[in-house]
Amino acid sequence: MNFKNAAAVEQVVWNMRLADRPRGENRSEINRLFNGFAPWTESEAEEAGIKTNVNFLDAPKLAADARRSYYNAFLKPSVFFNVTLDGGPNNKRGEWSSVISKEINRVMRGSRAYFEGMRSKIASTVLHGIGPVNWTDDQHWNPRALGVEDLMIPSNTLLSIENLTHFAIFRKYTAPELQDIIERKNMDPGWNKPLALRAIDWCVRQTQSHRSYAEILSPEKRQEQFKQDGLFYGTDAAPTIDVWDFFFYSNDARKTGWRRRIILDTPASGEVGVGAKIPEKNLIGDSTRTSDWLYDGGNRVYASKISEILHFQFGDLSAVSPFKYHSVRSLGWLIYAVCHLQNRLRCKLNDAVFENLLQYFRVGNPDDHERLTKIVLHNYGILPEGVEFVKQQDRWQVNPNLVQECKLDNQNMLNEAAAQFREGRNSGQQQGNPKTATEIMAEVNAANALVGSMLLLAYTYETYAYQEIARRFCIPNSQDIEVQEFRKRVLKKGVDAKMLDIDYWQIEPEKVLGSGNKMLQIAMADKLMAVRPLLDPDAQREAVRVYVAANSDDPELANRWVSDKPITATESVHDAQTMIGSIMNGVSIAPRAGQDPGQMVQALLVGMAEIIKRIGATTKLPTTSEFAGLINLGKTIEGYNQQLAQDKASEDKAKENEKLLAGVGKIVAQWGQELKKQQAQPAGAAQGAMDAANEAATAQVKNKALLIQASTKAKIAQASASQKAQQRQEAHMAKLKQQEESHIAGLRKTLRDTDVQTTIADAKAATEITNARKKAEADAEAAKNKPAKKKE
Q1: Is 188 inside a domain boundary?
Q2: In the prediction, which pLDDT does 96 show?
Q3: What distance in Å separates the CA atoms of residue 292 and residue 275, rounded to the nearest whole number?
Q4: The Cα angle at residue 622 between residues 616 and 623, in degrees rounded to 5
Q5: Do 591 and 727 reside in the same domain of the chain?
Q6: With 0-12 CB in 10 A as exposed, 13-18 as middle and 19+ as buried, what is 227?
Q7: The Cα angle at residue 331 between residues 524 and 401, in degrees rounded to 5
Q8: Which of 59, 156, 589, 642 is deepest in the core (most CB within 10 A)?
Q9: Element (H, E) at 362
Q10: 384 torsion bin: left (phi>0), alpha (psi -120 to 50), beta (else)
């Protein structure tokens, strides 16, 4: 596909605009409803005699709830996405990934333009189901939000955009903006400067109501005037230069890709003299180039993929596949009719209420009509003769039950339609008994399932935008100042420049816990804290960070309180390690404020175990002072563990610590008994007794090992003999059975041959069978009782 002239592009753009006109009318009706316009126009209300014509703002409220779900999903987390490297040294990947993620999100978080662009994209997604953004060049990372009406996409384009071959974007340039583009030192040569100058000159002519002949005949004076009043030409009072930025996919040249053209929309080509050379004196410039393109990129590839130009966030509720761009059905489309009905119903209901507040009188004689004008209603007032009130039962009555049922039905339909875009809550009055906590949690979980499915799609679509943003941050010689600063900071922190390549990056969006539902978010954070002791240290820090963020709604606070890098020794662990020496010397140390009893117990137990291990490996028994220090250390650990047990959430951990302390306490108690025996004997006798005890213990261990070995061998031999005897018995029984069957078969053959001796043969066979069976059983019993030979 290629476009050689602007006329062809104009025709294509015009056809897309005509096809989009009916869609635009539908979108304008949705915009009216969500912008709070009344359900009837003034002429319609006057013709129908409607007094109350108000939009009760159900639709804007539902849209605000839906946008809030998106805001919580994308703007609430401390980062937009995380970068994981799949290249480089293994011991550096984690550190470099953390640095890149932090720095790139720092730039994005600090950009007000990106924040507002996200808000615009989310609002368009909620209202019309499509949130388009566009990168205006091939360098800057921050895309611009587009209105759905400003983007012309051909019909039958799939949501995957795989069959998109061309599209157009409507843009507005003020005269100073276009002037700045064409006057840059590194101006893109594709810009048609003469045509741009004529368009700027058109703006000047439209703005100036009176110009002198000197300005008309002197281009220099007009240029100076434009410089002096440049700010005015950028205001709402001045007209804009409207263009269509046209992109198309072409494979005509050596390299395939997307190419770019720009044509004028306003002013029209005839107003600026397209196709004819304009004398130099009528131009604000010195070139006389003639062309109908405002911008012509030629065969130069503007982008290799559509993702480098456009991105879409879809909130599609369409049920018919394959899903297409112009078949997207949004929340605005889904609730439009019900909101209109609800507004009109409420307007009528208010009219009926106001009518019911009016006072009606009846006169018996038409001539007494003038008496009504003289009635003054006040306390103890008197009605003239012939005038009476019209009673309630004589007036037209509204069926309140029917009206209330219709209102509730409409409200339920609105809530169900918007359920997947908002947190579940019943704004109506509670009927019957109050709901239990279980019922409320069930409703919250159901609502979260709907919102979570919507956010799952939203995260998936947004990941594509994050990937393109990340790619632009990897451009080595980018003209974007923010990208340049990002690269400087990352390289300064030691990241290898080779890793600033999108091919090494894995992009994962940061997902909010609980799908934006505050109640569910806190509940899930509590569940994570319950299993935190079972997690790895890195996961434990992440669980605490999630818990703090969920309860404070401040991700930055969670990042400050819970560091990214593991702390090798906390203050409590450090205190415990430094206390062990003093405790072993018999000093009693009182707990300090701020110490974590759990960490203190763990650190002191580790220290106590190391001391016991050292004593067992060297002197075998502690000295009297070491024994006293171990007793003091055990009491200190017990005190901290009792403090830990006061926390219900740490009761299980305290019980586990108590078991560990009891285990090492037994060793210390045994050493205490040995020390008492030594103190009761002379020094030499004590040493001899200890040596004898050690030798006796060693001998006892050796004897026990020999007994175990002998017993094991005996059991193995017995099992082997028993197995062999069983195998021999089974083989003998099988042989006997075979002989029996063979003998019986022979006897039967003989009986068939000799009928006369049937009775005698049968008796004889039975006798032989019986004798054979008895003999076999006797042999088997003998083999079983025969003692097994001892293995040498």
Answers
A1: yes
A2: 92
A3: 6
A4: 155
A5: no
A6: exposed
A7: 95
A8: 59
A9: strand 361-363
A10: beta
**Claim to verify: residue 673 and residue 727 sit in the same structural domain:** no
The DSSP result for 37-70, as a single string, is: --SS-HHHHHHHT--------HHHHHHHHHHHHH
Q: Is the pTM of this model over 0.85?
A: no
Nearest-angstrom CA–CA distance, 112 and 711: 83
Distance in angstroms (rounded) separating the CA atoms of residues 242 and 314: 27
Strands 130-134 and 151-152: unpaired
Q: Give buried/exposed letters for 28-55 (b at 16+ CB in 10 A, else e).
A: eebebbbeeebbbeeeebeeeebebbeb
- Report if residue 403 sits inside a domain: no
Structural domain containing residue 555? 529-565
What would the two tokens of residue 550 be?
């969920």
Amino acid sitting at position 636: T
Euclidean distance between the first and the last CA atom of the chain, given in angstroms as a whole number = 96
Percent of the chain with pLDDT over 70: 71
Q: Are residues 661 and 718 in the same domain?
A: no
Q: For residue 240, how many other CB atoms are within 10 A of its CB?
A: 17
How far is residue 619's CA from residue 629's CA, in Å, rounded to a whole number?
A: 16
pLDDT, tens digit, 9 for 90 and up, residues 575-622:
888 888 888 888 878 777 778 888 888 888 888 888 888 888 887 788
Which of the four pLDDT bands, split at 50, 70 and 90, describes residue 231? Answer: very low
C-alpha 345/C-alpha 59 separation (Å) is 15
603 and 719 in a single domain? The answer is no
* Domain contains 775: yes
DSSP reduced 3-state for 323: coil
Instruction: Kindly report the backbone phi and psi dihedral angles of residue 418, in degrees, each rounded to the nearest multiple of 5, phi listed first.
Output: -95, 5
Please indicate, yes or no, whether residues 646 and 556 belong to a single structural domain of this protein: no
d(CA 473, CA 100): 10
Q: What is the pLDDT of residue 290?
A: 38
User: How many domains are there within the chain?
Assistant: 4
Instruction: Match 């434990």 to its residue by tokens.
Output: 540
pLDDT value at position 530? 82
Q: Is residue 248 part of a domain?
A: yes
pLDDT tens track for 759-791: 454 555 556 666 666 677 777 777 666 655 444
Question: 113: which 2 tokens?
Answer: 């333009």
Instruction: Indicate whether 182 and 304 sit together in one domain.
Output: yes
